[in-house]
Amino acid sequence: MIKNSLLAFCIVFMPSSIWAEENKSTDCFRVQDISGWNALDDERLIIWSPTQSKPFLVTLINHCPGLTFEQSLVFKSTLSRACSNTRDTIYTEDMPCHIKSIQRIDREKAKILISAKKALVLDVRSLKEWQKGHLSNATHIELMNLEKEIGIISKYKKNTIMLYCQSGNRSEQALKILKTLGYTKVINLGGLLEAQELLGEEIVKL
To answer: For the whole model, what pTM was predicted?
Structure first.
């Protein structure tokens, strides 16, 4: 599950009162306890810690090109733990990446986020809804045409397919159709906004 596990740590200890007002995050992790990480893209990564039951989703302020290719990271923290603090920084080979937020997530969500890197994201809403706004990485097949146009996604039969609609109802119907057709790795993300929040993709219009 964890591809990258070579980690280096640099901690700068400062009086905690200095950052008390600035650092209001409730989700923090001890940099010494990191057992591995998995970059989702150039501004998000999942941190794993053996002392915590749930992983952390770390979102960065700036884009960090090459983050997904890094074999080691240096976490520089103002305290013994990293929180949502712009002074807490992840150093890649190319540049420093400042932490915007840290969110504790369940393992199922982490699994979905990691799978999304190689998944097909499918919008099953109407053409009119699609044109008003859809995820930038999505493919469109309207629910009523799914079986008829299944050839469009047949090459993804062994891949994970992530579905969304407007509220989650049509994507649930699409999930059942795909499973009937032999697609086994299918996930219903729910509505457009839920999918956008989960995957972190931009909503674009035609």
So the answer is: 0.68
